[in-house]
Amino acid sequence: xxxxxxxxxxxxxxxxxxxxxxxxxxxxxxxxxxxxxxxxxxxxxxxxxxxxxxxxxxxxxxxxxxxxxxxxxxxxxxxxxxxxxxxxxxxxxxxxxxxxxxxxxxxxxxxxxxxxxxxxxxxxxxxxxxxxxxxxxxxxxxxxxxxxxxxxxxxxxxxxxxxxxxxx
Length: 168
Hints:
Layout: H1 7-24, H2 31-38, H3 42-49, H4 52-74, H5 78-85, H6 91-103, H7 111-123, H8 131-151, H9 154-167
């Protein structure tokens, strides 16, 4: 009879794997280098998570949960959202976000990233915003973040967000 999966070890491996993916991205994720970095074996990763796809799903969930918890605690206005998400320490998350978002267009993996932001904007502020307004806000923020990552122009993207808030 096989030994049951140790949930504490599995949680620790998932958290370490999330850190690894935030640092290196998903594009060339391979179980051997990941396992080596985590001090385990590819066989144990598959034992704990079943498949590479399931491991990736769990890693993305871990990262989303981390960011969502911080986001809910730290922001109250659209400007707060921008300051929080555009902060230099969030850049690894943003790079991964856009990698998943573009790489999984039309696939289930990308949908939680979109839904999470919309749901947060629609329900976390007072007064609550309707779905169309939340969609517009997310689209503007997402576009400015992509621009910022591609160009490194923090001053211009900060100014553009301030202009959007004035127009809204």
